[in-house]
Structure formats: structure tokens, C-alpha cells
Design brief:
By secondary structure, this protein is an alpha/beta fold. The protein has helices at residues 4-10, 19-22, 61-74, 90-103, 114-125, 140-147, 161-178, 199-204, 231-235, 263-272, 274-277, 284-299, 301-320, 341-354, 384-402, 405-408; strands at residues 31-32, 38-41, 44-48, 107-111, 131-135, 153-156, 182-187, 212-216, 243-247, 257-261, 333-338, 357-358, 360-362, 371-376.
Length: 415
Amino acid sequence: MMDIFEKLKSDKGALGQYQKQAHGYFMFPKLEGEIGPRMKFRGKEVLNWSLNNYIGLANHPEVREADAKAAAEFGMAYPMGARMMSGQTSKHEELEQQLAAFVGKPDAFLLNFGYQGMISIIDSLVDRNDVIVYDAESHACIMDGLRLHTGKRFVFQHNNMESLDKQLMHATRLVEKTGGGILVITEGVFGMAGDLGKLDEIVERKKNFNFRLLVDDAHGFGTMGKTGAGTPEYFGVQDQIDLHFSTFAKAMAGFGAFIACDEEICNHFRYNMRSQTYAKSLPMPMVIGGLKRLELLRNCNDLRANLWKVVNHLQNGLKEHGFDIGNTNSPVTPVYMKGGVAEATNVVMDLRENYNLFCSMVVYPVIPKGQILLRLIPTAVHTIEDVEYTIKAFIEIKKKLDDGKYSTTQIANVF
């Protein structure tokens, strides 16, 4: 028999094994100051490409004013209790109505958090007789929701429609025996690689298969589509998406989330989502702040246009200089390079210490061994000058990487 604590101390997990070397620098870094393209890291100003502040609302003066006024009037405690019991307000209902209208659905249900919300959506949608078919590169919140599912689930290869057809055939045969239904889950924008879920091709499958479609559009909401309503709008299939989910943690620059669908299903969520039934209501300042953020999203065509100006300049510039940015069709900009953990850490240290440039690093086990992914998140408040400086820095660090300098040299002693 082993003591649970002793087991955890000996097996720290895939990422936890690096905690002594990485904590405070590669993992759990402290970015300080006003949220924006330039922040402080370890006391030094850096050009920051690591925040999902797509539209630049985090420090928008109207947002800051709305948040401050609501906090002064209501505090952070109101309303007290879960919404079903004592935490309901007209402002919560108003935000739901406006979110539903924005994404073209009859109703929406406001959620406290995106990660928690997605897990609970899946849990309350399906039972052991139902089958879930999901994309292989689905976000961790979807994967954790699947763990609660007591029925069967089938995974299709990422964005591979032939694989989806195959799994839908398996699912169809199974539900014919169980009497259940089929739920397909994918994402609007895949947050690591930036490519889009093939929503138009997936909804075409409804002609041959009977299923409901849940789309996690966390990175698409506010950035994709003519009005910013998200990836379903971009593909012109809003009316064929059964369940449209998004979080406020990206383009809305806040916290909270929502699920939009028809009224009966929304009411099902209101009365059956355990994460909402047994949790305190979203604080009033975030609800009133959410209304202001949504107002700006609906009317910020200039900000969204500037976002895409920065995105296109960055992505086109990287491609012109031979960088591999994968198949991104969204603001998410991955830069793929060759190397192991040692090279990756030296690349990032060089960027931060000598170029004053901060971006996120992804290595094995998140991506295959031998690959480095540097993820850049352009925003509406970045400038073309920021882009040009970053491309120049990447050209220089790529040459050092190709010359083998990062495999033998410790760029900076930061610990």
C-alpha cells in the first residue's frame, strides 16, 4: 500500500516533472502591468504575444468604466446564491437574450466559466444510451466532459470527414440497439493550431446521419464572421449548429461563458446543469461588464478590422520568410520549428532576455517529440511595427536554431 501523497511526490505528471526548472519562467510566469502588447516580465518591458485579448477590450476605457461602476454599485458578492435559488437578476437574463440574438439562436444560458461549463454541458446532454463522436484535437474541457459520459464515444481524425463518416456509421449502428442518440462535438477554431473546424462539411452529414452538433467556438466568437458572431457565421451555417458554445475569456476579455440553442434545450440546461445549479451566480460586475463588452463586439468593426490587418501582416510575413505556420485560418498563429525541450527553452529564453519578446512555448507531450511550437496571438491593439520587429527577431532565432547554437549554449542564467 502507498500513501497518496508519496505517490504524487514520486510521479509529478507530464508537465509537473519540469516544475523545479520551469516554475516562474516557462510555467506560471508573471506578466505585470496594464494588459496589452507591452507588459512587464521579471521587471523588464516585453512585447507580449501571449494573451487572447483579440479585440483589445481588456483595457478599453468603456469596459474599464462599466466594470468599475458596477463594482462600486453592487460589489462582487451580488447576487448571492445559485441562480435557481436566489442568484437570478434581470441583467443576467438581458445578457442571455443579447448573446442569443448576436449568434442567431432563440435562447442562451449564461455560465460561470467556460471550462467548467463545457464539462457540465456534455454531462447534462447525454446518458449511457447515447454516443458521442468528437474531433481528435478537441480541447481539454471537451475531453474531461467525455470522461463523465457513461456511454460509448468514438473519435474521428482531426478534420477528416472520411473518418467522421466512418465513426458516424459505427455510432448509428450502436444507437439502433441502445435507442439513444448521437452528439457530434468539434471546435470552431482550434486554439493550438488555429485551423477551423469544417462546420460546413459536418452539417452536410446531417443529410445522411441523424445527430446533434455541439461547437466550441471559444476562439471564433468575436473574431470570425462578418459581424464577429463566430465561426458558424463565417461558414454561413448558424441555423444548422444545434449548440453554440463560447467563453468570455477570449475576445470578451472577461470571465463567464454561454451556450446558445433552442429554448427548450436551454431550459433543460437551466434545470439540469449541476455546475450551475450548485454554484454561485456570476457576479453582477461581470454581467454588466459583459453587456458592455458585447455592445462593443457588435459595434467594433474598426477594432476587428485592425485585428485582421495585424493578423494578415504577421502571418503573410512569416510565410514569406519560410516559416511553417500550419493551416491556420484564424488569428491564432503557430510557428513550428524543429528541436527538443533543450532547444525550445533556449529559444524562448533568447527571445525574452535578448529580444524582449514574450510568447508561449509548446513542446512534448502536448505536441510530438522533436517539434517546437511558438504560439503568437495577435490582437487589435498590436501595431504593424510590432509585427515587423517580431518577424525580424524570429528570422534571427531561426538561424541560430538551424546552426545548432541552442543545443549547446545556455542563453541566459535566469534561475
